[in-house]
Amino acid sequence: MREVYNFSAGPAMMPKKVLEKAQQELLNWLDQGTSVMEVSHRGKLFMELAAQSEADLRKLYNVPENYRILFLQGGARGQFAAIPMNLMGQKGKALYLNSGHWSATAAKEARNFTEIDEINILETDPQLKVKRLDFSDIAEQYDYVHYCTNETISGVEIVDIPNVGNTPLVADMSSNILSRGIDISKFGVIYAGAQKNLGPAGITIVIIRDDLIGNARKDTPSIWNYAVQRDADSMINTPPTFAWYLCSLVFKHLLAEGGLKNTEECNLAKAALLYDYLDSSKFYYNTVAKENRSLMNVTFTTGNDELNAKFVSEATACGLQALKGHKVLGGMRASIYNAMPIEGVKALIEFMKEFEQRNA
Asked: Is 172 labeled as ligand-binding?
């Protein structure tokens, strides 16, 4: 069977070694004669797995002791509602920074629960570029400030951390979590759906500072209440145990590969290869300013819808899967998350060169 490279934006490819480990243990986890999917989430062995997975994630991200890690459900969309339900205080207002589709979607959901102000921080002419990140002059009037660190659809990444003074900063990191090292202490809350870099769809990570837990509005459903979930060790109901198990394998894999320093170096190298080729081509182009180009989601187009469709079709036939851009934007999108090997990026570039020669 020929090598297939999956450029899906999510659910995305997972590390081959992780999948092989899961395959090996699928029918007999820890010599129990059963699958991890078949054991009680409150049993001794699974509780040990849960504790170790948190310890490994803390080590990977250097998470301070005054932060709690929750393993929840409902994806990032669930957190779009949970954030305002848990963080709204006496100020009664939140600030949302709009840099694209997902940050705007989070703001739309938050309006169902609280008053918000929304500021567009993205310039679109001639390229997509973040124009402002200092909000220290206005942030103190809000209970929290929310932004999305990486817009999966457009391929816009915000590397610098917004300046919001002492106001809690909330970050949706669904599509670039664990792609590089960050200073967790700069954030009040970080949340991410797992299906990009953490594991399979079905589990959501929330990293939250202790002092922000316990302030939920009275009508907050218990499953969205951070204090309830903290006190129940993220197990107020039966958690997605298989997804949790796979995340635990991913954390161990990343640690074994050298941690986030090595991960970041690999991601920088992959992105540089692809962007350098795009910049040298007169056939394809990317519309994001260099300082805001995503390491995870590389968008590009020929400028011709028919050619774009032909590109995606022929690439798929060559084993380069899921390169069609999101319906909101069109064009093509190569998602090169942590698990994408550099060989996959090289294979994509070779196909792009050959396609350009035949169709320019």
From this structure: yes
Query: Which listed residue (29, 56, 143, 172) is catalytic?
Result: 172
Q: Is 195 annotated as a binding residue?
A: yes
Q: What is the mean pLDDT of residues 166-170?
A: 98
Is 321 marked within a binding site? no
Evaluate whether 227 touches 234 at the Cβ level (below 8 Å).
Answer: no
pLDDT tens per residue, range 26-68: 999 999 999 999 999 999 999 999 999 999 999 999 999 999 9
User: What's phi and psi for 301, nearest 5 deg?
Assistant: -155, 160
Query: CA 76 to CA 102: how far, in whole Å?
Result: 10
**238 annotated ligand-binding residue:** yes
Give residue 321's identity as a one-letter amino acid code. Q
Phi, psi of 116 (to 5 degrees): -135, 155
Contact 230, 213 (CB under 8 A): yes
Q: At what angle do helices 259-280 and 44-61 cross, to 10 degrees?
A: 60
Please, which residues have CB within 8 angstroms of residue 46's CB and are 6 or more apart in sequence? 36, 39, 40, 241
Measure Cα distances from 322 to 182, 218, 237, 251 in Å.
29, 43, 34, 25
Q: What are phi and psi of 230, to 5 degrees?
A: -60, -50
Q: Which single residue is written with the structure tokens 């995606």?
A: 312
> Is residue 196 flagged as an active site residue?
yes
Q: Which domains does the chain have, with CATH numbers?
A: 17-257 (3.40.640.10), 258-358 (3.90.1150.10)
Examine the residue annotation and report whether 143 is marked as an active-site residue of this protein: no
152 is in an annotated binding site: yes
348 within 8 A of 342, measured Cβ to Cβ:
no
Question: Which one from 29, 56, 143, 196 is the annotated catalytic residue?
Answer: 196
CB contact set of 249 (below 8 Å; sequence gap of 6+): 18, 21, 22, 199
- What average pLDDT does the segment 208-229 reach? 96
Q: Residue 169 is inside which H or E element, if any?
A: strand 169-172
Do the annotations mark residue 237 as ligand-binding?
yes
Q: Is 172 one of the catalytic residues?
A: yes
* Nearest CA among 153, 136, 148, 197 for reference residue 14: 197
Rounded to whole angstroms, how far apart are CA atoms 181 and 17?
A: 22
- Predicted TM-score of the model (pTM): 0.96
Answer for the pair 270, 310: CB distance below 8 angstroms, yes or no: no
* Token digits of residue 286: 């990317």
